[in-house]
Structures are given as C-alpha cells and as structure tokens.
Amino acid sequence: MSGRDVAAPDFYTYAWEPIVSVERDGCFLTIGWADGMTLRAFDLWLRENAVGAGGVDPATREGLFDPAELTDDIAIESATVDDGGALRIRWALDGADATYHPGWLRHVAQGRHHPGSWIPSMSPWTSSTMSDLPTHDGSQVLGDDETFAAWLNDMFRFGVSRLRGCPVDADFNVSLAARIGAVRDTNFGAHWDVKADVSLAGDALTNSTANTNRRLGPHTDLPTRETPPGFQFLHCIANEAGGGFSTMADGAAVVEALRAEHPEHYEALTTLRWVFFNRGPGIDHRWSAPMIDLGVEGAPLTLRAFYPVRGFPDMEPDDMPRAYAAMACFSRLADSDRFKLASAFVPGDVVGFDNRRILHGRDAFESGGHRHLRGFYIDHDDVRSTVRVANRRLDQTSPTSVS
Ligand SMILES: [Fe+2]
User: Fold this and answer.
1) 242 compared with 403, residue with greater pLDDT
2) Cα of 310 to ligand 1 centre, how many Å?
3) Which CATH architecture has domain 135-397?
4) pLDDT at position 196, please?
5) Which of 36, 100, 170, 186 is at a distance of 20 to 30 A from 312, taking alpha carbons?
C-alpha cells in the first residue's frame, strides 16, 4: 500500500505528514514525526478510530463501538510504521489490521481537533483600539468564499462585523441566513422586523421596546432563555429617520475592565442572579442567571443585559443594594465613549454580532422618518461549524494563520 489512499476517520483532506517512529508503552503508543512532534495515543482510542476495522464506519465516518465492548482484551499485538509513513496496528483480540492516516494523527497532536480550532481567537476591543466596525463587501458575500469567511472570522475576533453594499430587498437576509446555517426561531419569528414608523410608536401591536422609537441602552437580546441566541444579524432595508445611531460595545472588554477596576462589582455580577422574564401576551419565557455568565472553561461568555425584560432580583434582600450598584456601574461603562462605537445604519448594511458578547443599542429616533431593519438569529454552534468548514476549505488552497 502506498499509504496515501488511507482513509481518515472523517471526511476532511489531510496533508500527508509521514510518521518516523512508534514506541509502545503498555496501553499507549508514542507516535513521532521528524520535527520532534509526538502524540501519546491510548490503545482503546486508536481502536475506536480504526477505519474499516470495526472502529469507524467508512460510510458515515462515525464510531461503531458501544463502550460496553471496549475491554482490556482489545490489546495492540504490533504497531509499526509502514513504507509510506502511516501507522499500522494489528489487534490481538480479533487479528484485525488497521492503518492510520499520519496527517490525521498529526492534526490531533497539534490540537486541531479541539472546538476552538479553525476559529479565530477573541480580540477584545475598545473605542481607542477600533475606530469603526470591520467592514466587508456585501455584494460579494453570497458568491465569494473568501469574503464570506473573512466576514465570519471578524465576527469571532471582534464579536461584530459588517457587510456593506448588500441588496436591500426584504428577502436578502433569507438567502444570507441559508448560507450561514439554521436560523434560531423565537417568539418574534425566524426573520423579524425592527420597524419603527414613528407614527406607530405605542401601538398595541408592538411587542418589544425594540419596536418603539425609544433609546435602547447597551443590551443583549433574549436573556430570558436558558441559552440566549448566539449571533444576531441586522439587515438595514431603509433608514430615513433622524437619530437612531446604532451602538456597539465589546462586552468582553467591559467585563475585563470591571474585573480589574471594580472587583467588588465583578464579583456581584458574576454570582448574583436575576430573573429575566418576557412579559408578552401568550408567552412566559423566564430564566434566572447572573448578568455575567462565565460558564465552564472554554464556554463562550454570556452577558444577560436587557433591562426591559429583567424582572426580579433572585437573591437575598441584603444583596440587592450591591447588585444594583454593580449593574449600574457595568451599564455606565458599557455606555461610555471608552467602549462604545456609534454608527448609522446605511441601507444595504448587514451587521452580524455575537449577541452574548456584544452590548448593542441605539439612540432615540427623531420624529418624521422611516427605519426598517430585518433581523434573524443563528446560534453559536451553527456559525462555528460554518466558519470551520470555510476556513478548512480555504486552508487547502492557501494556508492561513487561523487555528
Ligand atoms: Fe436588541
């Protein structure tokens, strides 16, 4: 066998990275490459990832072993490097032979199988480090893979990224959403309007403060959910209203400033809980959590900050004074020129942002104008999958620094 036609346990294409050594150490193998990189691999994990030898189904590239079948009887009889630099293992229990793609093994050694891989790292920003929103060509986004990937990558780096020059027809965001992933539906619908004809403000049909002409302070949408929507996309179809500037602040930077400069407020906002409550007719969404939800290690930051739906402090009464003081401090920081960028929506703009990281808002509208945004949400999982696929494809033709 040449080695180069070895199937990996997934459907991606890996560069051929020949291994040069394999040493056995009990139930582990230490696999080595010429540049000194090594991978210490556990035998049962290797057996689970044997393509076509009972570990991974070649058709689905999914694992076949029920964990109950993984016993110590599955031992390595022999492990060698073949002529092409692939790992070959003979298994003692059933005599099965398995060959492992060395490029696939190396991507594990490099840690590129971790969820954070193929996605840019977060770059927190303030108004002094970023003077305007990163902007990409909206006229190219549906057809050009590089523009699409660059726009999404900036959404992970900076939490916010804008397309300018998109079509202004009301269905464009349906096409754009289809390119990104499954839309997260809510009680506002899959694709919803923020449409504040000033003459309609106060109409009984408006079901959110967003649908009035009021100022909206820095906030995140739908903190009333166990998992608030991951990314939010706002497409500007018309903006003839005076005022109404859109504001964005990087919650990651605000949280870091709070931690460094006001540790007592940071402690209060990361531990004391609030009940967020949608009060619309016919719905009763509610969730209790801290305003700054750090989650478990590696989980995305989740800010819950939308005062129109913050219903009740969920804490001991004695904690309420410090909770309110901390919340006020956090909101003043987020609303300060130190963190906030203000920009006008231009028809044809689409601003995509991390709804759990970026604190977005808008100024109040002046009278006599029409403003129509159309929005949708897509959860983090779906956008991450899409950006990984896009970056892996581009990396095969032009290696990038995205890891
Ligand atoms: Fe909002």
Assistant:
1) 242
2) 14
3) 4-Layer Sandwich (3.60)
4) 64
5) 186
